[in-house]
Every structure is written in structure tokens, then in C-alpha cells.
Specification:
Layout: E1 13-15, E2 26-33, E3 36-44, E4 53-57, H1 59-62, E5 70-74, E6 81-83, E7 88-89, H2 92-97, E8 105-109, E9 118-120, H3 125-128, E10 132-137, E11 147-157, E12 161-164, E13 176-181, E14 184-192, E15 200-204, H4 207-216, E16 222-227, E17 233-238, E18 252-257, E19 265-273, E20 285-291, E21 297-302, E22 316-321, E23 332-336, E24 341-345, E25 351-356, E26 370-375, E27 388-393
Parallel strand pairs: 9-14
Antiparallel strand pairs: 1-11, 2-3, 2-5, 3-4, 4-8, 5-6, 7-8, 9-19, 10-11, 10-13, 11-12, 12-15, 13-14, 14-15, 16-19, 16-27, 17-18, 19-20, 20-23, 21-22, 23-24, 25-26
């Protein structure tokens, strides 16, 4: 089912005990397709606002010409869990055409997805190149249900895949590829079998991957963003005519008087999350905002050189087309404030989304007011013009 390899001297080391982080988040998979049975690996990810435990693995472990007949999931120190067909998912690109760029899958277990690895879709190519990573799973050439780890550097990457010469064997497909990032172990890829070429490979974690996985798991959550300074005024998106990615973005983000419609409603798509061992708050994860009506649109911020507070704000808040992955320009840390929350740019750490709805007193077809940026030296200085109440929408 897989072609995986050891490069020279086998550098894999057995993990024992397996019940401490991050190893306790890695699970042993026993998979049956008809009369064939295979071993594999999966791992739990920490996913806020989701009411199912999300296990990530390789697509070929959940779908191989058909979905698996049976699957047993065993976490270290826990009783095995039998999974039904309804709890398995692989993306249509893999199911329909076996596209290796989409060789990832999802296993849904009961309970909230509030214990697992941290992960990121935002580490750029130049930071991934030659980065040290670890791969940990359950190889088929070792005693059953024994965990082994190996490590090395990422040699190269492309839009969908990471390439490395790190020792693995069949059974480790679906293992987390993780690195040290922001003070904790962070998954950046899903190890998969290598069909060709000299390297082992992983499917890279991407914002589009997370967004589609969340759709299967009952998310992502949708919120309308009401200004704290201007009651009943909401952030609005208009991406009419914006049909392709642009370096400078496009479309329009402004204000609309309530009640909010889908133009004023945004998916909160997590793009970077701390592991569950980190004290959890909204600030422990980073989101991209994707409009519900203009579903192919991310909210984008450009500071345009803004380096100090300005009364009328500055910079630019507009859109980026979602046919490109959400990058740091489209990513925000949600900061809890005395009233509501603020949205701090990940690319520009002193920049916050600002809304001026002072002229918006009734609904107008084209919206009104101004949504731009404000600069603060400290998140404790943020004013109500940069604060929002998040109203969950059905």
C-alpha cells in the first residue's frame, strides 16, 4: 500500500513510555479494506470551537478504492475505539482521481477536539527549508503498536508537499511531521508514502485543507462582527468582480447597518493553534476571516507603512481571493478586550482592524463608513473603535 524507506543507517528510536505529550496525541490505526488489513498512524489536533475530536491521517488509510470497512483507533494508554464509515473522510480530489497532493484524511471521534497537537499553516517556505522536523508513528516492520521516532531536515517544499530524507517505513503513513515553533511542538505536515523520487514526503498543512476538514466536522463557526463603538454597525465585505488573487488585494471591506446578512458574516477559520497543553484562550489561536456570501474571499490587512497611531486610522483593509492559501497578511490573533475582542494582524503585530461607522445610521446597498487600520504599541491601549462583539450565526 505504501513505498517508504530508510536512508542509510536506520535512525529510528523507540518511544517508551508513550503517554506524555506529544506522543499521547499519536494513535495506532488498524484498517481493513475488504480482505486486506493494514497498519497506519494518525494524530489528534487541537481545534477550537469544534464538538468532534479530529484525528488527521493519510487519505489512503481511510479511502482505497472505497472507504475502509473497519478501523480501530488506539491512543497510548487508552482503550481502542471502533470507527464507522460515517466517521471517515477524504477530500474529493483524492477520492475521485487519487491526486497525491490531496492524500490526507480525517477520522472523527466523539468528544470535543480540545486535546492534541498545535499546528500551523502559516510557516513560509523560506522558514521551512532546512527546518528540523520529527516524524513519529507506528512502523509495520516493528512490533505491533510500538511507537518509533526519527528526525531530520526538510530538503524542499512546493505548494502541497514537503520533501525530506527522514527514515520511515510502511505503517508510518499518517504520522505528524512536527517542528518547534513559538515555544511548542507544531505540526506542519502529514507523512505519506512516497510514490516516486528520492525523498520521503508529507502533505503540507494548508488553510484550504483545514477549511474543508472543518466543513466535515461541523464547522467552521460563522460570526457577524459588530462594532463596540457604533452599535448595530457591522463589518461588511463586497468582492464583486474580484475573481483572482492580487498582490495588493481587491474588493471592499466597509460597514453596514444591522441586522447582519451573509455579506456581514465571516467564517472563523483557524490557521495556527497552540497545543492543548497551553492554557487555552482565544489568543492561543490565529484565524483567517472568510466571508460567507463571497466564499472565495479572505479579509486582508496592509499597514502601508503605518508606524504610529493616527486619528483617522490608516493602511488598508480589503480582500484576498481564497484560491490562494491564507498567508500572514490574512491572519489575525483574536485579542480579548474589556469590551469584545480586537483583531491583531499577524503580519503587522502593532496593527489592528479599525471601524468608523459614525456615518452609518441605516441600511444602504453599498454600505458605508470606513474599515481600515490603527496602530498601537500595546494591546492594552486598544480603543472601542478597534473592538468588536462576535455574534455567532446559524
Amino acid at each position: 500500500m505504501s513505498v517508504e524507506r530508510v536512508f542509510g543507517v536506520d535512525s529510528r528510536v523507540q518511544v517508551s513510555p508513550k503517554t506524555s505529550p506529544p506522543y499521547k496525541w499519536i494513535c495506532f490505526l488498524q484498517v481493513s479494506f475488504g480482505n486486506e488489513s493494514f497498519r497506519g498512524t494518525g494524530f489528534a489536533i487541537n481545534m477550537p470551537l469544534i464538538n468532534r475530536k479530529m484525528i488527521v491521517t493519510s487519505g489512503h488509510l481511510v479511502f482505497n478504492r472505497s472507504y475502509a470497512n473497519t478501523m480501530r483507533v488506539t491512543f497510548p494508554g487508552k482503550a481502542p475505539v471502533q470507527v464507522t464509515r460515517d466517521d471517515l473522510w477524504a477530500p474529493p480530489e483524492y477520492v475521485n482521481s487519487h491526486d497525491q497532493n490531496y492524500d490526507y484524511g480525517l477520522i472523527l471521534l466523539p468528544g470535543q477536539s480540545d486535546e492534541g497537537f498545535g499546528w500551523s499553516t502559516l510557516i513560509p517556505d523560506d522558514e521551512l527549508h532546512h527546518r528540523l522536523v520529527s516524524i513519529c508513528g507506528f512502523p509495520g516492520d516493528k512490533e505491533e503498536n510500538t511507537m518509533w521516532i526519527s528526525g531530520g531536515r526538510i530538503e524542499s517544499s512546493d505548494q502541497h508537499l514537503l520533501y525530506y530524507e527522514i527514515d520511515t517505513m510502511a505503517g508510518m503513513s499518517g504520522s505528524p511531521v512536527y517542528t518547534w515553533h513559538k515555544g511548542y511542538w507544531t505540526v506542519v505536515g502529514i507523512h505519506r508514502c512516497c510514490q516516486s523520487g528520492p525523498s520521503n514526503q508529507a502533505n503540507r498543512l494548508l488553510s484550504s485543507m483545514i477549511f474543508t476538514m472543518l466543513g466535515k466536522a461541523g464547522g467552521p463557526k460563522k460570526f457577524a462582527l459588530e462594532s463596540e463603538a457604533f452599535p448595530n454597525v457591522y463589518m461588511r465585505c463586497n468582492a464583486s468582480g474580484f475573481t483572482a488573487p492580487s498582490g495588493s488585494g481587491g474588493g471592499e471591506i466597509n460597514c453596514q447597518y444591522g441586522p447582519p446578512s451573509e455579506w456581514e458574516t465571516f467564517y472563523f477559520c483557524p490557521v495556527e493553534v497552540a497545543p492543548s497543553l497551553v492554557p487555552q484562550s482565544r489568543e492561543s489561536y490565529v484565524v483567517a476571516l472568510r466571508n460567507v456570501f463571497w466564499n472565495s474571499t479572505w479579509v486582508r490587512v496592509d499597514s502601508q507603512g503605518m508606524d504610529r497611531p493616527a486619528g483617522p486610522g490608516g493602511g488598508q483593509v480589503n480582500c484576498q481571493h481564497a484560491s490562494t492559501e491564507a498567508k500572514r497578511w490574512e491572519a489575525f490573533t483574536i485579542k480579548a478586550q474589556e469590551r469584545g475582542v480586537s483583531f491583531q494582524s499577524l503580519q503587522w503585530p502593532n496593527i489592528y482592524i479599525r471601524m468608523d461607522g459614525g456615518s452609518v445610521h441605516q441600511f444602504t446597498g453599498s454600505g458605508g463608513g470606513v474599515v481600515n487600520c490603527q496602530y498601537y504599541n500595546s494591546p492594552y491601549d486598544v480603543k472601542s473603535w478597534e473592538c468588536f462583539t462576535c455574534h455567532e450565526q446559524n
